[in-house]
Amino acid sequence: MNAPNSAEQRRDQAPQDVPRSTVTLIVNGTQHTLTLDNRTTLLDTLREHLALTGSKKGCDHGQCGACTVSVNGERINACLTLAVMHEGDEITTIEGVGTVEHLDPMQQAFVANDAFQCGYCTPGQICSANAVLQEIAANIPSHVTADLTATIEITDAEIRERMSGNLCRCGAYANILKAITQVAKERA
Amino acid sequence: MRAFSYERAASPADAAARAAEVPGAKFIAGGTNLLDLMKHEIETPLHLIDVRGTGLNDITATEEGGLRVGAMVSNSTLAANPRVREAYGVLSRALVAGASGQLRNKATTGGNLLQRTRCPYFYDTAMPCNKRSPGAGCAALGKGATTRQLGVIGTSDACIATHPSDMAVALQALDARVETVTPEGETRSLTLDAFYQLPGDTPDVENTLAKGEMITGVVLPAPVEGRHAYFKVRDRSSYAFALVSVALIHAPDGTGRVALGGMAPRPWRRDAADAALPQGAAAVMAELLDGARPTEENAYKLTLAERTLAALLAEE
Ligand SMILES: Cc1cc2nc3c(=O)[nH]c(=O)nc-3n(C[C@H](O)[C@H](O)[C@H](O)COP(=O)(O)OP(=O)(O)OC[C@H]3O[C@@H](n4cnc5c(N)ncnc54)[C@H](O)[C@@H]3O)c2cc1C
Ligand code: SF4
Ligand code: FES
Ligand code: FES
What we know:
The complex is a heterodimer.
Chain A: H1 7-13, E1 20-27, E2 30-37, H2 42-49, E3 68-71, E4 74-77, E5 90-92, H3 94-97, H4 105-112, H5 122-137, H6 156-162, H7 173-187
Parallel strand pairs in A: 1-5
Antiparallel strand pairs in A: 1-2, 3-4, 3-5
Chain B: E1 5-8, H1 12-21, E2 25-28, H2 34-39, E3 47-50, E4 59-61, E5 67-70, H3 75-80, H4 82-87, H5 89-96, H6 101-106, H7 109-113, H8 120-123, H9 167-173, E6 177-181, E7 187-191, H10 192-195, E8 214-220, E9 227-233, E10 244-250, E11 256-261, H11 271-275, H12 281-288, H13 300-314
Parallel strand pairs in B: 1-3, 2-3
Antiparallel strand pairs in B: 4-5, 5-8, 6-7, 6-8, 9-10, 10-11
Bound molecules: flavin-adenine dinucleotide (FAD), iron/sulfur cluster and FE2/S2 (inorganic) cluster (2 copies).
């Protein structure tokens, strides 16, 4: 028998006699109440149950950042958290960051700077990049911050270090850095 | 991943009581280590107790001039806390040297202490591992095994894995204590040496927590004056576990404390090594690494640890 090859098939064929829970998530401003197998990660919930396939599954183990989304204003890896652990949480995926008609400045900058090739890592990169600028503005230190008690400056080293949780197999790093730097300058 | 039932606990005492009572129960906090291991079916809990709603989210001053850090405080929040940055710099430094921004937002203080080893054979369920399946044997001690990441001291004939936490190395240098609540509602306070258990014949037992006992927080004593530094050596400059790491607190009079990560089954520190600090890195390591049993592939860690400390001291 062929393995299920669509979200619908996978859902239909999933065993029903396993422990399930009901959870309400607010995703990109819309409230969704879902009854899910407890094992469902936030990433699979977004992709398979809400058809928000912008967030990508690169590794499913916290090692690549392709699944980065914002939860209550903080970036996290959606693959290493369960949907049932997010009752009432506000989740923003790449679909909530901007639209084709109204690109977010970070999306615009990625396009303008050619900050991707295949684009698979890009949704995670953009969600992370916006969070990185917020984290620097909130003066949260990083591994390369020289003085823990001074105001943190936006430097190439700070951006690179803070983006290290987002891998890009196409190696678009140099242009990703340019795109983020451009947005940082626009905001300064 | 195996199926499991799920509940949210409202207080630490309730969580501990439930964990003792429900068969196959485990706590989940950030989930960044447990879910990874559940996907590999290395961990197979039947029931998860979500402890994030147990009210342990604060960092507060203690009467002794130190800090109490709630078990649910995230690694990001702890690293960014103004008091920690100013008076416990080694802890901020160790935290931001670990994982990624995304992971640190989820990882909790309690979960970080209990994260499991990154031994490649522990993760490879096709290989024998005494930590994963007691009595199965240890693939890392087999002929031709890849051991360059593994431990050199405090290890045993049953297991040579290291504890992977960066945070715990800084906590060891700071003389931090782990606070817990038992299923009977009693509280305990443990040094890291009393909390972490060396592998011996039972590498599957990694700590002295009783069944159901929950970590409620970590207490930092009053700050130790001097320079606080954390130097982590790894295969890439970010987002990788330590091969060797050194936490250093160095007072102006030359005395201080040294703890090592990446070397042993627990963050590694000895009083005699601290006492040798005024004599330099070689003297410290002679005490700290006395009795080491490296493999051919990881003996480089002995040299690397000494050079890492020497490099830190040379910065002054
Ligand atoms: C790709 C990747 C890279 C990483 N790199 C690093 C690194 O460089 N350095 C580093 O130090 N770490 C690193 N980590 C590990 C990370 O720090 C841990 O996964 C995290 O700290 C675990 O915290 P958590 O709250 O998510 O724990 P969980 O996954 O929720 O729990 C871990 C364990 O602790 C138990 N537990 C949790 N809370 C309590 C409590 N209060 N009382 C009793 N038991 C409890 C759980 O039952 C479980 O067994 C990395 C992780 C990943 C995925
Ligand atoms: S070193 Fe320890 S964790 Fe690694 S394979 Fe051997 S027993 Fe397992
Ligand atoms: S898919 Fe989540 S980090 Fe790779
Ligand atoms: S653009 Fe292809 S992985 Fe980054």
